[in-house]
Amino acid sequence: MSFADTATLASDADAPLVIPYRPRRHFLKLHASERRFIFACCHRRAGKTVAIANHLIRAAYLNGRQWPPPRYGYVGPSFEQAKDLVWSYLKQYTATIEGVRFLEGELAIVLPHNGAIIKLYGGMSAYERMRGMYFDGIALDEYPLLQKTVFSTVVRPCLADYRGWAIVSGTSNGDDHFNKLRLRALADPERWDVFIIPLSETGEEALSYAEAAELTQDMSADEYAREMECSFDAPVEGAYFADQLNAVAAQGRVCKVPVDLSAPVITSWDLGVHDYCSIWSWQNVGREVHFVDYVMDVGKGLDHWAGYLRKKATLGGFSYQCHLLPHDIEAREISTAKSRRQMLGELIPKDEPIITVPRIRSKEDGINASRAMLGSAYFDEDACKLGLAMLRGYHKSAMGLPVHGPGPHSHGADAFQTAAVGFHLVTGLSASMLRRGPMRRKIRGIV
């Protein structure tokens, strides 16, 4: 059931219960989500706390279980914040429910028909008391200000008994634990819905254009990017592709990019077994490079990735021209005495040649090649969302060297670099030319 212009709750009574909540347009999809977990990054003054409060009220009211009573929680960074802000919202929007009880001392609401409880928790000591309790749903608000392990060690076990749901919300604070959870959520679309709600997409429903313009005068560029445009990469010092990715976004090159059935697909890889393996899928279309898919995971073998390619060929309409892999594909496995190139070659069709991209002379050369490719690149806004996050987070250390780990950013960037360095080896060559043995040897020999 989803919210409409006013929130209507089904009940056992003849007439439905109407609560005085008019959802803002940008929260309708969040309210309609059927995923178990929701990640929501919202700009300041978007109205997320009101939306979360009503999301809890609806879930609690519609829960049909009588015993044990349904239990829902709101977790904020402080007791004062929960009391001063959220408590008033909960009372305001449940006031139309006849028989509702407000437990002021406990910051809890008890609904009459099923005994459902909605309770507020603020600060570390409060949500530590949640350990060992069951919950049907929990909202973690202002997540960047909460302890970074609260979801995994406190909240997630509380949801196990009744397969409860969770909303994790907040405003961007850079590349912190909130951002890391975002990347995990993007990689797990079967369980997570991810909503990024910047001011540029909410229009005047949240703030007037005049006020938004004035904010740009009173906030630094990085502050405005984080607080109002939900940017997770703005504060990253030394990001390699910041200017190029800003241009990609400003020129509308992150959009719907359907697979061109008249052009073959090329894949470019960064290999990993115990570490991340990343694969970009792209097409050379005229003077443009269309990136149509990105995937990454850790601990998967070559058989898994070969199966993924076959699935994309069957369901996604991908017709592969070739596969670009880094030079370490030639490394031999001790257990089999075969190179990973040989092993992959046994798993994919023979008419899809594997091209080993030569080792580059310096990392700076690869970064420059990637920057050049970004100048003509288009990215599918859904299929490449995770890959773009990897590129945005790829940055240099204080010593001026590329940061490799502990996060996954470098792997997505290295797979993109494989495409950039290998671009001229495959574009302009027909698939039949690539399949010829002498031509393949010639391509591999280019340095």
Report on this model:
The chain is an alpha/beta fold. The protein has 2 domains: 7-235, Rossmann fold; 254-445, Nucleotidyltransferase, domain 5. Helix content is 36%, strand content 20%. The protein contains 17 helices and 17 strands. The chain has helices spanning 28-32, 48-62, 79-94, 124-128, 150-158, 177-186, 199-202, 209-218, 221-227, 242-250, 302-315, 340-345, 363-374, 385-393, 409-426, 431-435, 437-445; strands at residues 7-9, 17-19, 37-42, 71-76, 101-103, 108-110, 117-122, 137-140, 165-170, 192-197, 254-255, 265-270, 276-285, 288-298, 320-325, 354-356, 377-380. The strands form 3 sheets. Strands 5-6-7-4-8-9-3-10 form an 8-stranded mixed β-sheet, with helices on both faces. Strands 11-17-14-13-12-15-16 form a 7-stranded mixed β-sheet. A hairpin with a 6-residue loop joins strand 6 (108-110) and strand 7.
Key attributes of the depicted protein:
single chain, 447 residues, Nucleotidyltransferase, domain 5, 17 strands, disordered C terminus
Short description:
The chain is α/β, with parallel strands linked by helices and 447 residues long. The protein is built from 17 helices and 17 strands. It starts with 6 loop residues before the first strand and ends with a helix.
Oligomer: single chain
Give helix % range.
25-40%
**Describe the biggest sheet?**
8 strands, mixed
Rg on CA atoms, Å = 25 Å
- Integer count of domains: 2
How many helical elements? 17
The separation of the N and C termini measures 60 Å
Overall pLDDT: 83
Q: Shape, please?
A: elongated
Tell me the strand percentage band: 15-25%
Structural class: alpha/beta
Unreliable stretches covering 5 or more consecutive residues? 430-447
Give me the CATH superfamily of the largest domain.
P-loop containing nucleotide triphosphate hydrolases
Number of strands: 17
Order of adjacent strands in the largest pleated sheet: 5-6-7-4-8-9-3-10
Task: Using the 3D structure, state the CATH architecture of the largest domain.
Answer: 3-Layer(aba) Sandwich
CATH topology descriptor of the largest domain = Rossmann fold
Look at the structure and give the CATH class of the largest domain: Alpha Beta
